[in-house]
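Teaching assistant's notes for section 4

Start the section by putting this record on the projector. Ask students to predict, before seeing the second block, whether SGNH/GDSL hydrolase family protein will look compact or extended. Collect guesses on the board.
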Amino acid sequence: MTNRRPRHRVATALLAGALALSTVGCTAAGGQAAQPTATTTPESRPPTAAAIGDSIAIGYGVPADDAWPLLVAKRLGWDLTDLADSASGFTRKGGSSHTFDDQVSAVIRLRPDIVVVAATRNDADAPPATLKAAATSALERLRAALPDARIIGVSPIWGADAPTAQLGSVRATVRAAVLDVGGSWVDIGQPFTGHPELLIDSKHPTVDGQEEVATAVAEKVAAMLARG
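Reveal the predicted structure now:
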């Protein structure tokens, strides 16, 4: 059975213990990215998944079950833990004083079959070199610890107005870091541009907005998985 209960409640505890984790290695051996296998699990359980992300990915302002990673998991038959943290990024500490690197530590403890990494507008103000170093380090550590996991990166989401040039830089940098470790990239464009009715405020989706993101991500991931 999939997604029977909200997984937001476990995220804080998992992140709190992340810094105490003992992780294995920081880069793949010889600098080569390990190649993920196809997502297969015993018939007795669904694939396990975890989401790394920001306030949009944790479902700020909407019911817990309406966060888009959980909606995607429900549609694709995954058992997902949403570890996203409001205001966080690869270079930004979120509401729980953790960056995406700390979320990576929590993911490693869970050892899921699938890891969804949602790039974020929160990194838009970071110097490009700083973001590249942080994203590369986090993704390489994730791959080294979980060589068989399927890593899926998702493009960053802006608001109803036109995104800045810096957001394009975030997208390119995180995409490169994901692909460099043998992950897959899902680009959903900007579903809220010109659609303020899908936002609670300037950037956080309503329930309908979360559905828009989930539909776009689920369709692209399903097509990607069908190709093998």
